[in-house]
Every structure is written in structure tokens, then in C-alpha cells.
Hints:
two-stranded antiparallel ribbon; two-stranded antiparallel sheet
Amino acid sequence: xxxxPKEYIDEVFVYKTDKIAELGNRPDRTMMIRLDMASYFxxxxxxxxxxxxxxxYQTPLLVLCPEPMSGNPKQDSNIVIPNNVKKCAIPITEKSxxxxxxxxxxxxxxxxxxxxxxxxxxxxxxxxxILFLANYMGAIHMKRELVDGEGRRNIKPKQLYEINQTFxxxxxxxxxxxxxxxxxxxxxxxxxxxxxxxxxxxxxxxEA
Length: 208
């Protein structure tokens, strides 16, 4: 077995996180931009790249999701949220959210498997969206025919494609709307760790 150098893993992590930021700053969220973003997200959060990096640094991978406080089990969460993670969260203001919203903390892998919405009575997770784009729609792999497989954890690409064609949210195809919203939260969860990694290497360069 050959293990990749830690420095290389860190470099790839920073590069891919920065590429997502570049794509996210483009004025229009086209399907091609989503495909590029999904390809980076797949390796970062599904294949485990971000988790490998976080094992050697202080910043935890936390998704801070704006949610209503009332009746929310996350309100009493004992997850410690560092200041650098809080600073990267989506701001909650009087203009942006109704009263009573707060940053509900999710560990990254927990958030990936938490439904971000429901369409056609089907809960859809951010992992569903990422793998749908990456494995079937051309971000990494592409299938000419979409066939739903067996198994509880199968993402069922045919079903997701039909939902995306049939339902829209704010004039945006439904599954793609969920992907767009999840992409913002996931990138904000990666950014604090990215900054810590980059700072570590900048400090070492200065000392050298």
C-alpha cells in the first residue's frame, strides 16, 4: 500500500475548495457550472478528502444551517462551534430571515444525509444531489439511460431526473435548486478548514 503525502492531500483540498468558490461567484448558475461544482464536491465531501484533512487540523467540519428555533432539537446541541466557523456562516438578520432563526449545527456527514427538501413525497438529501450530478449527469460519470436500482441507499437517478423535470422551486428545477442551496452551506463548512490549512503553509513558508 502507498499512502499519498499529507502535503499533496492538503494542496488538493485547498485547490478544490477554491475552485468551488470561483464557480459560485459566477453571475449565472448554469447546468455546466453545477456539473463542475459537483465534481469537486464529490471528492471533497463524499469520497472523504475533507475528512482526511480535518483529522490533522483544529477546525471541525460543521454545516451551520439557518433553521427556526421553535421545536428544533438542534437548539440544545452540545456541539462546540469555533469562532472561525461562525464567521463563515450565512448571516441571519432581520431582513434575511424571519424572527426566531438560528444556526443549527450539523456535522458534515450528518448534513449530507439530512433531507434538504421534499418533492413528489420523496426526501432529497444534498448527497443525493451531488451523486446524481457526479455519477449520472456528467460531472464525473455519465449514463445515457437512467435506471433506478434496488436498495434503500440507492439515489434512484430516474426518479430524481423526473422530479427535476416536473417540479420547480422559484422557477428553478427542483433538484437543482436543492443542490444550489446545499452547495452554499457545504462550501461555508469547508472554508474555515481551508483557511487554516492555507495559513499553516503560509507560516511555514515564512519561517523557511
